[in-house]
């Protein structure tokens, strides 16, 4: 990518924690950060912090400040410069341009309501975009495009068979086609999570992506984008998610306290980090496997 200055160079293992500052961090984030941090430290590697603030309408500076305070409270130090995705939009735009030139993306004019309506027919698996705008001549109304979508069938044919490595699942055959023509950029958000994360992990020299298993499926798309953009493929460590006493996944919407709440209530963050490492936190924590 010619943009390694913001990473830390060639130092063996490099992991990262990449929160989106759209809300407060909770225990699940702490667990992921601890695992990513420890994975690097145990191998003499580097742990990076990247703020995924591409969604300008939902990202808030006060959440960034809390993220920094939360990590310090947990006793997790990161290496190198703090990277903000909002300062890297030109890189994502360049990559999108290259994909456009190869005919691998197309503009989409559908509103969310139109897509929802088209999907109202019963379907077996997760809803995927039904391809309404694929192959339609966009020229007369180009300025009305809401989004740019990957032409998945073309992209998969272009890239050929792909594999990636997951610590728990082993060698995984990439199946990005299950997710259909994913959005790579929107009018109001110049890069999707998929595009930005793929570019940044490569640009920062990340060798090991440690993150929750809720992002396992997304990795199929990231693997494809790596192939299309000529980027290296890191190793993946998708860890189990923390669950509450009810066995349900901990999430903000389930009312689990934020790290900020715990910090301000006087909880010892380093002790909490150790409890998460040892599986002795007062929530259902799976044994450390990443
Ligand atoms: N920014 C994403 C999130 O906060 C995580 C990205 C990743 O680890 O790949 O959910």
UniProtKB/TrEMBL annotation:
GO-annotated biological processes: glutamyl-tRNA aminoacylation
Question: Where is each Glutamyl/glutaminyl-tRNA synthetase class Ib catalytic domain found?
Answer: 13-267
Q: Which GO terms describe its molecular function?
A: ATP binding; glutamate-tRNA ligase activity
Record's GO cellular component, any one? Answer: cytosol
Keywords, sorted A to Z: Aminoacyl-tRNA synthetase, ATP-binding, Ligase, Metal-binding, Nucleotide-binding, Protein biosynthesis, Zinc
The record ties this protein, via InterPro entries, to:
aa-tRNA-synth_I_CS, Glu/Gln-tRNA-synth, Glu/Gln-tRNA-synth_Ib_cat-dom, GluQ/Sye, Rossmann-like_a/b/a_fold
Q: Pfam families per the record? A: tRNA-synt_1c
Spell out the PANTHER family in the cross-references: GLUTAMATE--TRNA LIGASE (PTHR43311), GLUTAMYL-Q TRNA(ASP) SYNTHETASE (PTHR43311:SF1)
Concerning its family, UniProt says: Belongs to the class-I aminoacyl-tRNA synthetase family.
> What NCBIfam families does UniProt report for this protein, alphabetically?
PRK05710.1-4 (NF004315)
- The protein depicted here goes by the name tRNA glutamyl-Q(34) synthetase GluQRS
């Amino acid at each position: 990518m010619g943009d390694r200055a913001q990473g830390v160079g060639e130092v063996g293992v490099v992991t990262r924690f990449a929160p989106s500052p759209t809300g407060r961090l909770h225990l699940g984030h702490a667990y992921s950060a601890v695992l990513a941090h420890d994975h690097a430290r145990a191998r003499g590697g580097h742990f990076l912090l990247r703020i995924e603030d591409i969604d300008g309408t939902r990202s808030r500076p006060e959440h960034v400040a809390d993220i920094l305070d939360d990590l310090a409270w947990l006793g997790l130090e990161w290496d190198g410069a703090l990277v903000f995705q909002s300062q890297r939009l030109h890189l994502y735009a360049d990559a999108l341009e290259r994909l456009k030139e190869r005919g691998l993306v197309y503009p989409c004019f559908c509103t969310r309501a139109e897509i929802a309506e088209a999907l109202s027919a019963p379907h077996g698996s997760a809803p995927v975009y039904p391809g309404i705008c694929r192959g339609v001549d966009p020229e007369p109304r180009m300025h009305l495009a809401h989004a740019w979508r990957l032409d998945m069938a073309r992209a998969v044919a272009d890239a050929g068979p792909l594999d990636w490595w997951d610590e728990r699942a082993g060698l995984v055959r990439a199946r990005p086609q299950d997710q259909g023509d994913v959005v790579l950029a929107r009018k109001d958000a110049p890069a999707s999570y998929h595009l930005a994360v793929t570019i940044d992990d490569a640009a920062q020299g990340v060798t090991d992506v440690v993150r929750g298993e809720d992002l396992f499926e997304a990795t199929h798309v990231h693997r494809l984008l790596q192939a299309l953009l000529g980027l290296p493929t890191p190793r993946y460590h998708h860890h189990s998610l923390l669950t509450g006493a009810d066995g349900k996944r901990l999430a903000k919407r389930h009312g689990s306290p934020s790290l900020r709440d715990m910090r301000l209530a006087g909880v010892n963050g380093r002790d909490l980090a150790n409890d998460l490492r040892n599986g002795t936190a007062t929530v259902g924590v799976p044994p450390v496997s990443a």
